[in-house]
Amino acid sequence: EDQVTQSPEALRLQEGESSSLNCSYTVSGLRGLFWYRQDPGKGPEFLFTLYSAGEEKEKERLKATLTKKESFLHITAPKPEDSATYLCAVFPGGYNKLIFGAGTRLAVHP
Amino acid sequence: DTEVTQTPKHLVMGMTNKKSLKCEQHMGHRAMYWYKQKAKKPPELMFVYSYEKLSINESVPSRFSPECPNSSLLNLHLHALQPEDSALYLCASSLGANVLTFGAGSRLTVL
Prior knowledge:
The complex is a heterodimer.
Chain A: E1 3-7, E2 10-14, E3 19-26, E4 33-38, E5 45-50, E6 56-59, E7 62-66, E8 70-75, E9 84-90, E10 99-100, E11 104-109
Parallel strand pairs in A: 2-11
Antiparallel strand pairs in A: 1-3, 3-8, 4-5, 4-9, 6-7, 7-8, 9-10, 9-11
Chain B: E1 4-7, E2 10-13, E3 18-25, E4 31-37, E5 44-50, E6 53-57, E7 64-70, E8 73-79, E9 87-94, E10 101-102, E11 106-110
Parallel strand pairs in B: 2-11
Antiparallel strand pairs in B: 1-3, 3-8, 4-5, 4-9, 5-6, 7-8, 9-10, 9-11
C-alpha cells in the first residue's frame, strides 16, 4: 500500500535554530515527491518537486533532498515567518492521485 | 494567470440546503481535483477529473456531486450534508502527474 509518513508531527524552533523535517515513503513507482507549505485556513503552496534519488532543490532558507526511501526538508536559520505546516506528498505510479503525509507543524519563535 | 480561484470563500448551510462550490483555472491544466481537509489533518482526495471526465472517485457519499462543465471549471454540488462534512474544501489543478496548484479553499460549515 502506498504510504507517506512525516516526522516530527510538530516542531518548535527558536529563530536562527536550523533543523530538518523528515518524509519517508513507500510507493510503487514514484513519479515525483512534492513539498508544500500551508498556512492556517489557506490552500497548500508549492515549494519543491523531486524526482530521483540524489536530487536536491533550494529556495531561500529551505533545501529539499531525496533518497530512495525518504526526503528531508532542511530549514537553515529559520525566521518566524517560516511558521506553517509543511506537507510532503507523492505521486505513485499508475494513476493521478497525490498522496499526502500528515504534515509537520513548524513554529519558529523570536 | 497562474492561479486557481475558488468561490465562495466561506459557506454556511443547513442540512436541507442545496449549494455549490466553484473552482476556475486558466492555466491550461487538464486534471482537476477536489480535496477535503479537516483541521490539523492533511488534504484527503475526493475526486479527480482528467480531460473533463471523472477518473477517480474516492468512495465519496452521493451527497457530494462533482461536475466539470469545461476544461477550466469544476463544481462541487452539495445536498443534504451532515455537520461532520464541515471542512475546508480545496480545488487543485495540474498538467498530468505534476505539480498541483491549489486554490485558497472554501470553508464550509454545516449547521
